[in-house]
Design a protein that fits this description.
The complex is a heterodimer. Chain A is α/β, with parallel strands linked by helices. Chain A has two domains: about 270 residues, 2-Layer Sandwich (Aconitase, domain 3); about 150 residues, Aconitase, domain 3 (2-Layer Sandwich). Helices cover about 35% and strands about 20% of the residues of chain A. Chain A has a five-stranded parallel beta sheet with strand order 5-4-3-6-7. The longest helix of chain A has 16 residues. Chain B is α/β, with parallel strands linked by helices. Chain B has a single domain, classed as Aconitase, domain 4 (Alpha-Beta Barrel). Chain B is about 25% helix and about 20% strand. The longest helix of chain B has 11 residues. The chains are: A alpha/beta, B alpha/beta. Chains A and B meet through helix 2, helix 3, helix 5 and strand 8 of A and helix 3, helix 5 and helix 6 of B.
Chain lengths: ~425, ~180
């Protein structure tokens, strides 16, 4: 019987299959941040087990609340920092080097096709864009991962989603994933991996693929995954060039993770994206969405950033729309470039100046406002359009409303002062691309 | 082994997410205990006022599909645990939430949608419903003054071992 991508990776990592419904697999990397890791560190200390399985395979970042906003968050950061130093974890990213984990770690070359990765963060599914089997876990599973380099989970079953056609100008990877979640519902892929394929994926950049896989969890999926191809190799090349003769050689090696032609999928969907339009979410669930052009919703805040849409390609799209424009007087525009590299690149390219001239503030890289922890919390009754991934009740602040949208929709709406379809704000130069 | 069950709290909505169970602003807590007073603080449910509920009187929750969807925060099951609620029953759970619940030695039991419907019909409007879990023969008993019945449930061997050992850290430390 043929295997899916996730099944091939899983089978190559099984170390104990005693249990029928939970296999123990070996981990190639364990990622850690300051929110879910400190309780694990504390528990290991209490149990007299303050050890790590391999300091080179653990990657650590302070990203959710940084710089620390109060004593509690400062203590969390300190616990993580002291632990990383104590165990000589060299890939530890603190202030000056830190950024949103799921943007930072791929950028640093920590992900490879065929890897197994866990993190105490549900958006760990993002790394599936590289053909890795990566998924979020809680603090206890993270704790065992840190200590033993293993995780227990059930054998992966996949849903195949084939995306055909050409995206219209002004419609982006974010709109694609919002459409898919709308189709599948928030419970539609629970206990399943979503394997994305088709010409749309082939044409997508690695950053666009990450936007897609990032939100697989919003359909309940364990992970989102894309087959590795030459784009994957190109993205990783500076980190892997010493391992291979040339790029073709690397691709050949990574091709072992491609799904078999007779792989068995629990469900298969084929979507033609050609007539898909920009979407925004409404209410408190990411599967509830309407066309941006039908929304007539006044906004107080426009937020651009996060592990979904805080990468350089997102900033370029947004700056293309903002150039020479001012955002509405009543709108607070907040840009959080996802990593220091994104920040510096945007600075060099003059994008930050465009954002600032239009009325945006630029914050340091952090998860910040996305989950209402810092840097842009809403007051009760306020409304945000946001490039993030969750519109749950209270997500960006108690009593606030979050409408998820693409970076283009976020900044076009900032200009209009209300949620709009971004297509009429995209200049003719952009259309030529 | 510890005792599972107690008075039942009914949460009649699908897709209750972890942000509703414990909002992210409380995730700067390192310890479990401070989570206690914030359980279900942002729950989007008609006529539900968390400030008027003494969660400590409950030992179990019955809810609907995709319970615990959203983030990976184990603070969600912990917020139930510190209130003494150690059994969660739904027609299905989000994967991470379910794994987290068993990993800390609690129960996340899945029953069919029809069974959940029947439990809601029979018991949800009563406020003295008790749940008793028998892990040896995998049965649960719902009871009130005028009605009671027994249901079977299933756990995987791994889930059973996790509950028996008191969680995944102890089991893994012994085995791997």
């Amino acid at each position: 019987m043929g295997k899916t991508i996730a099944q091939k990776i899983f089978d190559a990592h099984i170390i104990d299959d005693t249990y029928e419904n939970a296999k123990i697999i070996k981990l190639d990397a364990v990622f850690a941040h300051e929110i879910t890791t400190p309780p694990a560190i504390k528990d290991l200390e209490t149990k007299g087990l303050d050890k790590v399985f391999d300091p080179n395979k653990i990657k650590v970042v302070i990203d959710h609340v940084t710089p620390s906003k109060d004593t509690r968050s400062a203590i969390q950061a300190k616990i993580l920092r002291d632990w990383a130093r104590r165990h000589k974890i060299k890939d530890f990213f603190d202030i000056g080097k830190n950024g949103v984990c799921h943007a930072l770690f791929p950028e640093q070359g920590f992900v490879r096709p065929g890897y197994t990765i866990i993190m105490g963060d549900s958006h760990t599914c993002t790394h599936g864009a590289f053909g890795a089997f990566a998924f979020g876990v809680g603090t206890t599973a993270l704790e065992v991962g840190i200590l033993k380099g293993v995780v227990a989970t059930s054998y992966p079953k996949s849903i195949k989603i084939v995306l055909k056609g050409q995206l219209e100008n002004g419609v982006y990877a974010k709109d694609v994933i919002l459409h898919i979640i709308h189709e599948l519902t928030v419970n539609g892929a629970t206990n399943r991996v979503i394997e994305f394929s088709g010409e749309v994926i082939d044409n997508f950049s690695m950053e666009e693929r990450m936007t897609l896989t990032n939100m697989a969890i919003e359909a309940g999926a364990t992970s989102g995954i894309c087959a590795p191809d030459m784009k994957t190799v190109e993205y990783l090349w500076k980190y892997i060039k010493n391992d291979f003769n040339d790029k073709a050689d690397a691709l050949k090696e990574y091709s072992r993770w491609l799904p078999d032609a007779d792989a068995k999928y629990e469900k298969e969907f084929e979507f033609d994206v050609s007539d898909w339009e920009p979407l925004i979410t409404i209410k408190y669930s990411p599967d509830q969405s309407i066309l941006a052009k039908d929304a007539d919703i006044k906004i107080d805040q426009a937020y651009l950033g996060s592990c979904t849409n805080g990468r350089i390609s997102d900033l370029r799209i947004a700056a293309g729309i903002l150039k020479g424009q001012k955002i509405a007087d009543h709108v607070r525009g907040i840009l959080s470039p996802a990593t220091p590299t994104v920040f510096k690149t945007a600075l060099k390219e003059g994008l930050l100046e465009i954002f600032m001239d239009s009325g945006f503030v630029v914050t340091n890289p952090t998860c910040g406002a996305c989950l209402g922890m810092s840097n842009g919390v809403l007051a009760p009754g306020e409304v945000a359009v946001s490039s993030t991934n969750r519109n749950f009740k209270g997500r960006m602040g108690k009593g606030g409303m979050v409408h998820l949208a693409s970076p283009a929709t976020v900044v076009a709406s900032a200009i209009a002062g209300k949620i709009v379809d971004p297509r009429k704000y995209i200049s003719s130069q952009e259309e030529g691309k | 082994m510890k005792k599972f069950g107690g008075k039942v709290l009914f949460l009649d909505r699908a897709n209750i997410n972890t942000d509703e169970i414990i909002p992210a602003k409380y995730l700067t807590e390192i310890d479990k205990e401070p989570l206690k007073q914030h359980l279900l603080e942002d729950l989007d449910l008609n006529n539900f006022d968390p400030t008027s509920i003494n969660f400590e009187q409950y030992g179990a929750v019955v809810s609907r599909a995709n319970f615990g969807c959203g983030s990976s925060r184990e603070m969600a099951p912990w917020a139930f645990e510190v209130n003494g609620i150690n059994v969660l029953i739904a027609s299905n759970f989000a994967r991470i939430f379910r794994e987290n619940t068993f990993n800390c030695g609690m129960l996340a039991i899945e029953l069919s949608e029809d069974t959940i419907d029947k439990i809601f019909q029979d018991f949800a409007d009563k406020d003295d419903v008790l749940l008793d879990i028998n892990l040896n023969d995998m049965t649960m008993k719902f009871s009130t003054t005028d009605l009671n019945y027994e249901l079977e449930f299933s756990l995987t061997k791994f889930q059973h071992d996790l509950v028996k050992h008191g969680g995944w850290v102890k089991l893994a430390a012994d085995k791997y």
